[in-house]
Design brief:
Layout (H helix, E strand, L loop, with lengths): L7 H10 L4 E3 L14 E4 L2 E3 L7 E2 L1 E5 L2 E6 L1 H5 L7 E4 L4 E4 L1 E6 L1 H7 L3 E2 L6 H14 L6 E6 L11 E2 L2 E2 L2 H6 L5 E5 L4 E4 L1 H6 L12 E5 L5 E7 L3 H10 L5 H21 L2 E9 L1 H13 L5 E6 L4 H11 L9 E9 L29 H14 L2 E6 L2 H18 L8 E4 L8 H7 L2 E3 L2 H7 L3 H5 L1 H7 L3 H6 L4 E2 L11 H10 L16 H7 L2 H6 L17 E4 L16 E6 L2 E5 L1
Parallel strand pairs: 2-7, 3-8, 9-18, 10-11, 11-14, 18-19, 19-20, 20-21, 21-22, 22-23, 23-24
Antiparallel strand pairs: 1-7, 2-5, 3-4, 5-6, 8-25, 12-13, 14-15, 15-17, 16-17, 25-26, 26-27
Helix pairs in contact: 3-8, 10-11, 11-12, 14-18
Length: 580
């Protein structure tokens, strides 16, 4: 369903900003019988991302759809008295970026809790919590997300497995439960009050697929790996159970709006959400019916049993039919955790934790059952797999289900992340038609510590193998895994083409993408990965008028200028939704 206007908050910011870009035309009227465009962008460097990677100067949009692409002269014929004209003045335009793997509601929620991404060290995080406690009522939960022990400028003291213990955190928050999510989302850190509310003590056993980290005396440190976070999250949920339906709905709408505003500010017009329960999909469906979704969402069903999905999926099948803002036709599963938190499932033990090969979060048998349900109801399956063992197991699952169902390679099933893959398994992606749903920015973000986890040989041979995948004929779709990373596609683009890390080194440059490959991975490849290439992913006549305007030509500027590139405007269905 189409939405015709931005939110009031966003509209207020556009009212002044759009004047910097656009003016009504004062030239000659279109020829008789020619319907004028609603919006024209002209005088730019426009990457169409069509099959020939054609470049253009101008594009015209009418009623939300592209009606002309070509030279200024070609498009000028569609300018009428009411046409809004954006003079690009040599700036770069491209199809609106498609976030290929992120967490939409988590992005919105992350805007309402402590942002720990920029914390220099553990002491800085404790100080942030102390400040929050000073403003909170006793018993009120303090939550945050974004810490990563490998990115701190100094290690915590004391430390267990490189992570802090909860003593200093508990000291500043004795009466307030605290839960701080790891940047990856695959671990959390709790203080003593939160551990007690979750029912954890010295004698507790972790749930399947989780770990409770202990110190040398057997005491809980507060670090919770993978599913061990769930009892603490459940305790927080209990504390929220007294909220009214109106309060819950207001919070939901606020998080949707915050996520959308952040996405639009980074040039993202479509967002592939890597997992939402049916209840969240119901809420998003209400917003779409109201015309209140500012970005287009592609939702993967998550957190339902195979029995529930078998019963409910027919009622939730919502393939894209054009100018949609909510599409549901896929399922998300997760076989392992993250490398940073030692949760990725590996073929051989970790270099820095030799007793572990990672964690299995959802069993092979259960995911196999999901795959059969998906075949039955025509749903795509997108399975999180980071470790080389995890990727191999998922390929085995897909192959066995395809064989039993007599399915071909046109189902476009995906492996989400595909970060660490044995070279022998890359041809299998191509043979089975499996898409590698990867995140370019993860490579440069993780590069400093990947050899610590895997050793140099495995790091070079098996991690972030973009060129190896493409040479084998495997299509890569790109994203950020936001809020694990910033949603900024330009940062992902830069990582994909330079693999330049924060310390100035280049992470195995033989795996780099070319610039046009990186742009396609963020546009048409993501559209194909969601069965939406007929409507989006390139600027061609008959496709949706989703466009991003960037202040410089990211296909030609020197590498050192890519970090300075900024989104100037974001257009969804011919509507200017963001102006810098």
């Amino acid at each position: 369903m189409r939405t015709d206007s931005p939110s009031p908050r966003l509209a207020a910011s556009l009212a002044a900003g759009v004047l910097l870009l656009a003016a009504c035309a004062d030239g000659p009227a279109p020829a008789e019988g020619v319907t004028p465009a609603d919006l024209v962008l002209r005088g730019g460097v426009i990457a169409t991302v069509d099959p020939d990677n054609s470049m253009a100067e101008a594009v015209a949009i009418a009623d939300g759809w592209i009606v002309a692409v070509g030279s200024n002269d070609d498009v000028d014929a569609l300018i009428g008295a009411e046409t809004e004209v954006i003079e690009l003045d040599g700036r770069f335009a491209a199809p609106g970026f498609i976030e290929g793997h992120g967490h939409f509601m988590s992005l919105g929620n992350s805007k309402t809790i402590l942002d720990l991404n920029g914390a220099a060290n553990w002491d800085a995080i404790v100080a942030m919590v102390a400040d929050a406690v000073a403003e909170a009522e006793p018993g009120q939960w303090i939550r945050g997300r974004g810490w990563h022990q490998e990115k701190w400028d100094s290690p915590p003291d004391p430390a267990v497995e490189g992570n802090p213990t909860h003593a200093s955190l508990s000291a500043v928050s004795p009466d307030n439960p605290v839960l701080l999510g790891h940047a990856s989302g695959h671990a959390g850190f709790a203080n003593a009050a939160a551990l007690a509310l979750a029912g954890f003590d010295r004698d507790s056993e972790p749930p399947p697929g989780g770990e409770l980290v202990r110190d040398e005396n057997g005491e809980l440190t507060g670090l919770l790996r993978e599913t061990a976070q769930r009892p603490v999250s459940a305790a927080f949920a209990r504390s929220e159970s007294g909220r009214s339906a109106e309060e819950i709905e207001a919070q939901f709408r606020r998080e949707v709006q915050l996520a959308a505003e952040e996405a639009l500010s980074k040039g993202v017009t479509s967002f592939q959400d890597a997992g939402a329960p049916f209840s969240t999909i119901d809420g998003l469906k209400r917003l779409e019916e109201e015309g209140a979704l500012p970005v287009r969402l592609y939702i993967m069903v998550r957190r339902a049993s195979n029995e529930e999905m078998d019963a409910l999926l027919p009622d939730y099948y919502m393939p894209s039919t054009g100018d949609d803002y909510l599409t549901v036709r896929s399922i998300k599963r997760q076989i392992d955790g993250a490398l940073g938190s030692h949760g990725a499932w590996l073929l051989e033990p970790y270099e820095d934790m030799t007793e572990s090969t990672g964690l299995v979060l959802e069993t092979v048998e259960d995911i196999t059952g999901t795959a059969h349900v998906a075949i039955k109801h025509g749903f795509q399956v997108n399975t999180h797999a980071i470790g080389d063992r995890a990727n191999r197991e998922v390929l085995d699952i897909y192959q066995s289900v395809f064989d039993s169902a007599g399915a071909g390679p046109d189902l476009r099933w995906r492996i989400e992340h595909a970060q660490h893959v044995h070279p022998d398994d890359i041809p299998r992606f191509a043979e089975l038609g499996i898409l590698a749903s990867m995140q370019g920015v993860h490579a440069t973000s993780d590069a400093p510590w990947i050899p610590l986890r895997l050793g140099d040989r495995r790091a070079e041979e098996r991690t972030y193998l973009w060129r190896s995948f493409m040479n084998a004929g495997v299509r890569i779709n790109n994203g950020t895994d936001v809020p694990v990373e910033d949603i900024d596609p330009l940062a992902g683009f830069r990582s994909s083409v330079t693999r330049l890390t924060v310390d100035g080194s280049i992470f195995y440059p033989q795996q780099n993408m070319t610039r046009i490959e990186a742009l396609r991975s963020y546009t048409i490849n993501n559209a194909i990965a969601a069965f939406e290439e007929d409507y989006k992913g390139s600027l061609e006549v008959g496709k949706l008028g989703d466009v991003v305007v960037i202040d410089r030509d990211i296909l030609t500027v020197p590498d050192e200028e890519l970090a300075d590139a900024r989104v100037d405007a974001t257009i969804v269905g011919g509507e200017v939704r963001y102006v810098r």
